[in-house]
Structures are given as C-alpha cells and as structure tokens.
Amino acid sequence: MDWTAYLPMLWQGAFVTMTITLASIAVGAVLAFVFGIMRVEGGPILSTIALCYTEVFRGTSLLVQLFWFYYALPLVGLSFDPITTGILVLAAHAGGYGAEIVRGALSSVSTQQLEAARALNFSRLQTLFRVSLPQAIVEMMPAFGNLAIETLKLSSLVSLISIADLTFAAQSIRNITLDSTSIYSITLLCYFAMSLVLMVAIRVVERLVRRGQAFPQMPRS
Amino acid sequence: MMYGYEWDTTTWLTYTTSILPIILIGLTVTLKAAAAGFAIALVLGLAFALLRRSRLIAISWTTAVIVEFLRDTPLLVQLFFLYYVLPEFGIVLPAFLTGALALGLQYAAYTSEVYRGGIEAVARGQWEAATALNLTRMQAYRDIIIPQAIPRIVPAMGNYLVAMIKETPVLSVVTVMEMMGLANMIGERTFEYLVPLTLVGLIFLLLTLICSAGLHRLQKALPKAGIPLR
Amino acid sequence: MTEDNTAPIIEFSNVAKRFGPLTVLDDFNFTVRKGEKVTLIGPSGSGKSTVLRILMTLEPFQDGRLTLSGMSYHEPNGKGPFKASERHLRQIRTHVGMVFQSFNLFPHMTVLRNVVEAPLRVLGIARAEAECRALQLLDMVGLADKKDFYPSQLSGGQQQRVAIARALAMRPRVLLFDEPTSALDPQLVGEVLSVIRGLAHEHDLTMLLVTHEMRFAREVSDRVCFFDKGRICEQGAPDEIFGAPREARTREFLSSVLA
Ligand SMILES: Nc1ncnc2c1ncn2[C@@H]1O[C@H](COP(=O)(O)OP(=O)(O)OP(=O)(O)O)[C@@H](O)[C@H]1O
Ligand SMILES: [Mg+2]
Predict the structure, then answer these.
(1) How far, CA to CA in Å, does C217 sit from each of A157, C46, C244?
(2) CB contact at 8 A, C204 and C171
(3) Chains B vs C: touching, with 3+ CB pairs under 8 Å?
(4) Is residue A82 in some structural domain?
(5) Which long-range contacts (CB under 8 A, 24 or more apart) does C18-27 make?
(6) Ligand 2 centroid to C210 CA: how many Å?
C-alpha cells in the first residue's frame, strides 16, 4: 500500500510534536530561570532545593522520568492526562539543564559590574534584574538554543506513553504498511526540517536579546 | 526470561530486595550498551572530524550534512530506522548491536565536534612549527596535534559517556533488556511500578553522580601541556 | 589644615583591614573634612584602593570605627562580614559615589539609561526629571550628543566621562575616584582630567582621588596623602608634599614616578 495516503496522519503527528516541544520549552524556560536564580541568589535553603531539582532531573534518565510519572505516580493517586504528563516531564528535564545554564551565565557576570551596581545603590533584586540577567541572558542564548533542539528530539519519547506525536504516527503507519524505509526516512526528514525551523527561530530570539549595538561582538560560547 | 521469578510485593523493602538482583543484571546490560556505543562514537566521530577537514569540498560538505542530520534527529527514530530498515537490505543484527550502533551514530555527531574543537584549538602556530620541522601531515597529527588536543577532548568525551548511559533506556523499545526495560516488565507483571522505576531512577542518579565526581578528578589529573602518544 | 574648621565628613579611627592572613590596614586613622579634595598617592599594593572600597562598602573591615557624616559603618548588633544590615549599608551608600578604573558602565544600556537608571529605580525620581538632569550632566561632561549610543561604541575617555556623570546623578556627598585615567590611552587622559578638574570647584562635594597623575594631583587637591604599607606616611598641602617632602620614603617614591 502506498504510504502517501498516510501523509495527513504524519502531519497531525508533526503538529503534536511541535506543540509539545514548544510548550515544554516555554515551561522549561520558566523553571530554568526560577531554579537557576534560586541556585545563585537563594540562600542556603532555596539553593539546596534548586540543587536537588537539577541533580535529580539531570541525573536520571528522561525515559525513566516519563514512565515514573506515567505509570508510577498514578499508583499513589496523582495522575494527569498523557499530554500534560509528557509536557511537564520534558519541561522539568529541560528546566534542570536550563537552570545550570542560567546559573553558569549568572555567575559569569563580572564582579566589576556587580560593584558598579552596588556603588549606584541598587538593591539585590534590582542588581539581578537590571544588571546581571540582561547581560547573562546573552551568554545563555547559544546553550539555550542547543537545549531547545535537544527538547525537540527528546519529545519523540512521549510516543512511548501513548501520545500520538510524529514518532507515534510513524510507528502506526509502519505497522499498517510495513514499508519501513520510506516511512522512517520521511519521519527523520520531518524532524530535521523542524530542527532547522527551530534553529531559525532561536536565531531571531537571539538577535532580539542582543539588541543590535549593545553586544556587537559574538559572545564566548 | 522472567518466568520462574517470584516477587514479594508485600512491602516496598521486600519488593526492592527481591527485584534488586535482576535489576543489577539489567545494569550490566546498560553499561555494556553504553560502552559499545561509546566505542563506536569515539571511532566514528574521529572519522567524521577528519573527513570534515578534508580538502575535497564534496567530502567535507557531505560529512557536514550527515553530522548535522544525525545531530538534529531523535535517537528513538534513528533506532527504529536501523531496527526495521537494515533487515530490509539483508543486514540482520542482534538487537543489542543495533541499539549500540544507534547510540554510537548519534553520539558520533557530538564527538566529531569535540574532536574538531580540540584540533582547532591547538594553535595554528603549532601546525606551522610542524611544517617548518618538515614533518608529514601524519606525523604532525600523531606527534604534535593529537597529544595536545587530548587534555581538551577527554573531559567533554566523559560528559558524553555519562549522557549516553542515561539514554540507554531508549534501547528497551527494541527489546534490549537493560535496567529500565526490566523494571517496566516487572511493573507489568505486578501492577506495581513505583518501586522498580524509583529504584532504577536512583541507580541512574548514583551512577551519574559517581561518574561526574570521577570526571572531575580526571580533569584535574590531566597534564595541561599534553600527553605524548609514544 | 587650619583655615577651614568645618566638621569631618569621613573619619577612620584605628581601622584594621585584613584579607585572610594579609593585613592591609592596621590601626589606620584618617579624617576628611566636608568639601575637601584629597589625593591618595603611593606605591602599588599600599592600600589606596582598599580605603576607597571600604568607604564604598565594597569591602568590609574588621576592627576600629569608620563614620560618614556621623553615621557609623558598623552597627552595634550588626551581623555578617560588614557587621551591618543591608538596609544600613544602603543608607550609607546614598552618600557615596565611585568612579572605577575600568569605567564599569552597563554594556546593555545606552549612555542615557546608564545615567538615568539608578536615580529612577533607587531614588524613585520621575522619569522626565531624571532624564532632564541626566542630560544636563551629560552636557557637562560633553557627551549629550552620544546619549543614545551604547558603551561599546564609545572611546575609553568617553566611557569614563559617562561613568562620572552616572555617579554624579545619584547626588553623592562624597565621590571616590580609583585611578580614573589608568586604563586610558595617553591621548584620552586629558578629557577625563578636565571633567574632574571642573568638579574640584564644587564646594559641597568631597572628593577622594587615587591617581598616578602627579601634576594633576598637585593642581586640584587641597591635601595629598602619601600611602606606604597601609599607613599614611606623610600628608600635607600639595606644595609641601611635592615641593619639600620630609620623609625619605616620599622622596624616593616621588623621584621614581616623576623620573
Ligand atoms: N580581594 C583581595 N584578596 C586578597 N588580597 C587583596 C584583595 N584586594 C587587595 N588585596 C591586597 O591588599 C593590598 C592592598 O591592595 P590595594 O588594591 O588597596 O592597593 P593599591 O594601593 O590600590 O595598589 P595599586 O596602585 O596597585 O592599585 C595588596 O597587597 C593586595 O594584594
Ligand atoms: Mg588600586
């Protein structure tokens, strides 16, 4: 049977993949900033909490996390629908790595800048939001870009908790047509295309963040 | 393979002790798969890096596209591709090898960048000095470039090894019975997923923490000036 | 030192400052009167920057007493390295401003925003008023036409002049300069010095200046202090110090820098 008949199914799957990826990136970015800032500015208790969060989500495998939240958590009475579970776990995973990026960039802001802020009598929060973060965010962008691509790739794992994303669609179509070569080739190409689109989007965001003349030189990567 | 096993699910403690032996068998599979994948990634990555530096534009560009493609597509789909498509061309590999190959391919894309960065970071002056000493390209790589690149490369490679260990659970979808696959299977039998999955998660966490600490040590122990190959 | 008997604005008494095992200031005593222009000179590592940084609350000190307009830096039950609450330190900082050797402008803000930001956020001045005053200050340092540029688009001398405007915008009573021209190319030093020279005529502004520009120090200061090994080895009117130094160490230092 001709696999082209199944293109709409693939298209739907790709749409689900994109939605889950973008949602995870958005939620993950929030988590990354919250926990990254907690690591740097949180004081002993908050920074320990943030450290535990990043170590757990970076140190255990994403697939284990997905299954844990999908199979194990409902047994203690907590359950979400698969899509929510998928987005939350992907976001928490990305957030763990993102928090490390935020922490690294924040601690690379030079002490001279912090002293200048102090001499101008900025409060700690003002220093963070008006001096440190705007500079650190430029440093974060390349690493965040990689993380976004990584999240897109890892989103394929949600097909294993029965979410009908692109990979899930490919599997279903293969099971019907048994034409593995075409279907997996086109799926890989779809993911590749989505990665490229995502990269372009990241470039645009990066350019916005750099505000033209303020940071004319490429940042250290 | 699970017949003949009895699991005592009365308390989480008895449950844990009864599944621990089989999970540890899974751990060895996890480590073997990661090691095999890592070996493939190290060799293939170096090949990619050198091909990318080829003077023939056709070769360097093709390599660049392949590397980019491998890097920007999911491991899971690459794994399905190898698992289902290779047999159609008459190449039938054991699941374990297919899995290791998929891991190796994906990470070869990453390691090739590490090699490239390491080689390029060795200053241009070193190449010129090698040329001035009338060394062949081969000798220059072996005696000058690679020894100096190693201290830059090793820590990054170590990080990728840790990352690969954490990705091996994906291989369970093509019937490689590593830790998480086993935990899942136990869960299916007993309808009690919490203990096996938590146990596997904790083992991964421990493994990662140990590896990171080890890497940290290794990084400090490496001589900054380079390691001679002979 | 006898003609002006206004009250001291800065008073170090028996201050000790240590970095771990290294004692930088020991039993340090130093007084500055309101409106006075004091230059600190001395060999590298003698503790000149440390004195300014302590005043700016960038460094804590361990023992002794330091007051600014009668306000003590240490609080009676103060905790942490500064022995004071953050609130108290911020209170002190409202009176002090600092100009750094490496300018330390905020790279992500335009020149105007660099100057406006702190008055706007910290002092809570209305935007229109803050901008109006910032433009006056930029005009004073000769950079009003560069207000929409980013620091990376300016020369070092221009950046340092913006930094001076930025410090002045907070209306400090005490302004500290730590080698403001040391990071500049020789041909850019003059433009910064002439801005500082202009400030030397402000009667209410107390200025502490660390510099290696001896001719300039002689010209603008009311008093010159020669630092050596964490102590003020000799101090006096510029003509005394430069014209007829009493201490051997001072003569040695001056002959080495003026050579
Ligand atoms: N953060 C620090 N940690 C340890 N030691 C320090 C620190 N800052 C300064 N010191 C030491 O304190 C001493 C005085 O330093 P300070 O910067 O005050 O000297 P200075 O007179 O400004 O010298 P220069 O002309 O080189 O700027 C020096 O010996 C310096 O090494
Ligand atoms: Mg100094």
Answers:
(1) 70, 18, 15
(2) no
(3) no
(4) yes
(5) C18/C62, C23/C230, C24/C50, C24/C230, C25/C50, C25/C51, C25/C54, C25/C61, C25/C230, C26/C230, C26/C231, C27/C64
(6) 8
Inside any domain, residue A134: yes
Three-state DSSP class for B96?
Answer: helix
Q: Sort out which chain A residues have CB atoms less than 8 A from C165's CB and list them.
A: none
Beta strand C37-41 pairing with C63-68: unpaired
Helix, strand, coil shares of chain C, percent, nearest 5, are 40, 25, 35
pLDDT, one tens digit per residue, over A178-198 is: 888 999 999 999 999 999 999
- Summarize pLDDT for C63-108 with one digit per residue, the tens: 999 999 999 999 998 889 999 999 999 999 999 999 999 999 999 9
- Give yes or no for a contact between A151 and A90, defined as CB atoms under 8 angstroms apart: yes
A61 and B204 in contact by Cβ < 8 A?
yes
pTM reported for the whole predicted model: 0.90
For chain A positions 20-39, those within 8 Å of chain B (CB to CB) are none
Ligand 1 centre distance from Cα of residue C22 (Å): 10
Q: Which among C51, C54, C40, C116 is positioned nearest to C83, based on CA atoms?
A: C54
Q: What residues are paired with C144 via a beta bridge? A: none
Q: Which domain holds residue A144?
A: 3-211
Domain range annotation of chain B: 12-224
Q: Which of A121, A130, A213 sits opposite C94 (nearest CB)?
A: A121
Q: How far is CA B108 from CA B39, B83, B101, B219, C55, in A?
A: 10, 18, 10, 22, 56
Q: Is A51 on the interface with B (CB under 8 A)?
A: no
Could you tell me the CATH number of the domain that includes residue A134?
A: 1.10.3720.10
pLDDT in tens, B141-179: 788 777 788 888 888 999 999 999 999 999 999 999 999
- For residue C126, how many other CB atoms are within 10 A of its CB? 10
Q: Is residue A220 part of a domain?
A: no
**Domain B12-224 falls under CATH 1.10.3080.10:** no
Task: List the structure tokens of B65.
Answer: 């596209």
Q: Kindly state if the Cβ of C44 falls inside 6 Å of ligand 1.
A: yes
Ligand 2 centroid from CA C218, angstroms: 19
pLDDT of residue B152: 81
Which residues in chain C have Cβ-Cβ distances shorter than 8 Å to A113? 104, 106
Number of folded domains in chain A?
1
Question: If you search the block for the tokens 């201050």, which residue do you land on?
Answer: C15
Instruction: State both tokens at C96.
Output: 């002090």
* Residue whose CA lies nearest to ligand 1 atom number 17: C49
Pairwise CA distance, residues B146 & C166, whole Å: 51
DSSP string, A179-198: -HHHHHHHHHHHHHHHHHHH
Q: Which of B88, B168, B209 lies nearest to residue A181, judging by beta carbons?
A: B88
Burial C4-35 (b: 16+ CB within 10 A, else e): eeeebbbbbeebebeeeeeebbbebebebbbb
- Joined together, the tokens standing for residue C130 give 């803050």
